[in-house]
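Reply to dn_fold:

You asked what the input looked like. This is it:
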Amino acid sequence: MRKCNSVMVAFMLVCSLALAGCGTNNGSTSGASNAAAEANGAASNTTATDGASSAEASGPLTINQALPDKEILSKGPDGESAVSAKTLQLTEEELKKIKSGNYTAAISMHYAGNDWSKAQLNGLRDTFAKMNIKIVATTDANFKAETQVANIETILAKKPHILVSIPVDAVSTASVFKKAADEGVKLVFMDNKASGLQAGKDYISVVSADNYGNGVEAAHILAKAIGEEGEVGVIYHDADFFVTKQRTEAFEKTIKDEYPNIKIVDRGGIVGPNDGEKVAAAMLTKHPKMNGMFVVWDVPAEGALAAARSAGRNDLAISTIDLGTNVALDIAKGGMIKGLGAQLPYDQGVAEAILAAYSLLGKEAPAYVAVPSLQVNKENVLASWKTVYHSDAPAAIQDMAK
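and this is what came back:
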């Protein structure tokens, strides 16, 4: 993350990085403890014990093979080519070996109070249960690097075989993750790795969405919505974080390469998730002919939607990344948000658990794994919700889609 002179700005950057990878935040930060407790049966910032069920699983264990069969376009944090999560598999024999091993796991989240985090946790918990791996700790750092460091120290005292985590800050948490690796804990990272750690030596793999692919999908959606011509603005994440940079890079390159009659007339950076409305309002004032806007994830896209409404610009087309509740509602009713590229967090959690099992078996694991991108629009929003979250869309979204 970029160095900042202001402590407050640094803190906002940490928070925004976490949100950028995670989709919508349906509650305030102060509600993180309740959200984490609801999702995990644990209080925020404390270590909780989850008992893995003795769920029986027959046959091989794989990622949902009904996911889109697409080339993965993203690169890993060290420039690695991606391997599709759909290629991961435990054979029935391998699964039996894991189930008989009496293994334990822990999960250290940056924040557990949003849809993305809850879906990740559900995927991890369901898959570990199928492996008879007991989850001995689930923690929520509430966006605070120092809290995550303390959480992991507490986790290490429980001596788990596996730790799955997303670093709040790649640099300031690096030493505690290195300590875990040195103690023989099998590390699997979500979205980004701790700084200085090496795949195959210190950690097993990094698992993420195909963020580049989702940026491409967002570009095609917006281009179609404005008839493949006009002026568009880009609201990007003004931080040195490879996940959000890939989204914006993919969107801009796709527009420039494939839609010669669309011009990107302005770019505005956001530091935190609540900056979208301010940046979008300034763009719309400066460019009254602007007919399209890309916003790097769904929460600031909600702000852009509010800015367009305030400006009387109900004709503006918006595309974004991440299928959160509020943007799904707008898509379902045919509003200004025309569609988005969606992450698949439940399946990301499944992939992380399978990769942890690879390490226990001594099975070679790819350094970087990604789940396919998913284009979401008005026609498929309900089906997409079920694909993303492995549950039916909330009643409000279903009603709006009718």
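The chain has 14 helices and 15 strands.
Hope that clears it up.
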